[in-house]
């Protein structure tokens, strides 16, 4: 497979961009990532003209795939051509807010921002402002964006910055516990209960190989936060409008979080984030409340149009049936291949999310430590390239999950299963 153009582009990029990329994970592909020229349905075409079946889908935002339906395209074009932004509100922000409030059970009010990171940053500030407390509990292996309060590793007794540039004194306000470990959560509440502003969790770990919550884990988090006057924040940046359809993962699990963060799909492929929840809490944001929050680009008309028309299209068509059916076909096919060729591996995922994790210790991984122990080097350095050589584009490493879009077909699924059969 010729990749001369990608190599030349990467060389140019290296001289002007750190690591040659604008988001760290993109450089996980070695020796260099391929540069995409354009999307086409469920596929992408790279700078050398190679075509791949694309299961990365922008790392989550593209529910419909690369070919946007006419009405989505038209609305985006119209907003772009009317002049990008105004510094004063527009109707389409209200339309998308109404749509989100109507469909997501726990959301009475919503504030739009420009990225998932901005959403979780604002949600943490909001939880602290609302409760007057300092600490937040997070799950090891959960990802909440590139922000100071969550770039923290270790455990609740020894939290430490996971990135240079984050002061230890910030990290001390973040308490990491293993996913699915009720005992650890009880312990942090015993020790810090009256200073815990919130527990923030992904409903399903989607940035760490896909790990599902154990039966009762979210109910337990809901109860213990209520008991202690802390808030429960669901970070649905990945799962929002993907798992559980328009009601999001919270409706699937039957849990009512106090605050929900959104991103990815709700912007229809454009930069977006959102913080939603109980009116009384969300109204603590300025100007109705004392928690400062603002953004020049927030509620951008092009983003709002792309998000609203994408979600309206999903509401009016068989989008979720299609992507979830293909997800079932993929996971079913993969389970057969794995049982046959790699019984020590796990097929993970639900709805339109899927991943083969290169480990299994009797049962599927239940937390980040299990996934950390997987054959991550084999996944990234050997397996990923074998799939690419067969024109299948998977996410860059063992940890990021993969997505089915409305543009994918049964033929894409079959060809992908053949490739896995060959590579595993
Ligand atoms: C992607 C992601 C984020 C960060 O969103 P960005 O738009 O990349 O800043 C936060 N939380 C979760 C669960 C995510 O998957």
Automatic annotation (TrEMBL):
One Gene Ontology term from the biological process aspect of the record: protoporphyrinogen IX biosynthetic process
GO molecular function, one term: glutamate-1-semialdehyde 2,1-aminomutase activity
Pfam families: Aminotran_3
Catalyzed reactions per annotation: (S)-4-amino-5-oxopentanoate = 5-aminolevulinate
Residue list for modification N6-(pyridoxal phosphate)lysine: 264
Pathway connected to this protein: Porphyrin-containing compound metabolism; protoporphyrin-IX biosynthesis; 5-aminolevulinate from L-glutamyl-tRNA(Glu): step 2/2
Compartmental location: Cytoplasm
PROSITE patterns: AA_TRANSFER_CLASS_3
Gene3D superfamilies: Aspartate Aminotransferase, domain 1 (3.90.1150.10), Type I PLP-dependent aspartate aminotransferase-like (Major domain) (3.40.640.10)
Family to which this protein belongs: Belongs to the class-III pyridoxal-phosphate-dependent aminotransferase family. HemL subfamily.
Cofactor(s) needed by this chain: pyridoxal 5'-phosphate
UniProt GO cellular component terms: cytoplasm
UniProt gene name: hemL
Protein name: Glutamate-1-semialdehyde 2,1-aminomutase
EC number: 5.4.3.8
HAMAP family associated with the record: HemL_aminotrans_3
Organism: Natronobacterium gregoryi (strain ATCC 43098 / DSM 3393 / CCM 3738 / CIP 104747 / IAM 13177 / JCM 8860 / NBRC 102187 / NCIMB 2189 / SP2)
